[in-house]
Amino acid sequence: MARQVRAVISPDLVPVAESVMAATGITTYSQLVCLLIKNFGNELSQRLRGELSQLAHIQTVEGKDA
């Protein structure tokens, strides 16, 4: 049986969540949270631990685009 965990979205973030959902075709808040964690969870953890800076990420992206 899959384990379920519930998350609460702060009321001030609901418009942002709904905007992302509308732009991407995501239909539920659960899908949105799962996709965000799956796609950005490792990077967020690294940034919070100070292992990855936003500036380093921007420079890497800009280097690839050039």
- Helix amount, in percent? 55-70%
- Poorly predicted sequence stretches spanning 5 or more consecutive residues: none
- Care to count the β-strands? 0
The average pLDDT score comes to 85
Number of helices: 3
Strand content: under 5%
Fold and architecture overview:
It is built from 3 helices and no strands. The longest helix has 20 residues, at 29-48. The model has no long low-confidence stretch (mean pLDDT 85). The radius of gyration is 15 Å and the shape is extended. It starts with 13 loop residues before the first helix and ends with a helix. 0% of the residues are buried. The chain has one domain (12-65). The chain is mostly helical.
Keywords:
66 residues, mainly alpha
Topology summary:
Blueprint: H1 14-24, H2 29-48, H3 54-65
What is the compact description of this entry?
The protein contains three helices and no strands. It has 66 residues and is mostly helical.
